[in-house]
Specification:
Blueprint (H helix, E strand, L loop, with lengths): L5 H15 L4 H76 L34
Length: about 130
Amino acid sequence: MFDVGFSELMLISVVALVVIGPERMPKVARTAGALLGRAQRYINEVKADIQNEADAEEFSRIKATFYDATKAIEYTANQVRRELDATAASLSESVAAKAETPLAAPVEAPSGPAQLDLWPDIVPAAGPAASPNT
């Protein structure tokens, strides 16, 4: 608050010693110290109250932000739920419609052994380039 250096304090003490006198100086110094201590405690108390009020205001602001976010998430979840319900109903109708249609004639399995070529790129082709001893 005030910028009082050592030289200013010495000047004030010398003037106070001259004006007040040496016999009353200790009592005045104690009283001044007590008053300054009380003022400092009061200032710290006011600072703490202001800080608590600012924290409470910030907390309520954060609380409102979270409340808005939860409302947005709830709204989105309800939209997704409605879309899923509509999709499920559509699929249910589609399955019911397929169940009502007659099945086509069964497909006959081919006779004889079936050859599956699972890895055509890995098996080397027949011919002169395929032999490793060339």
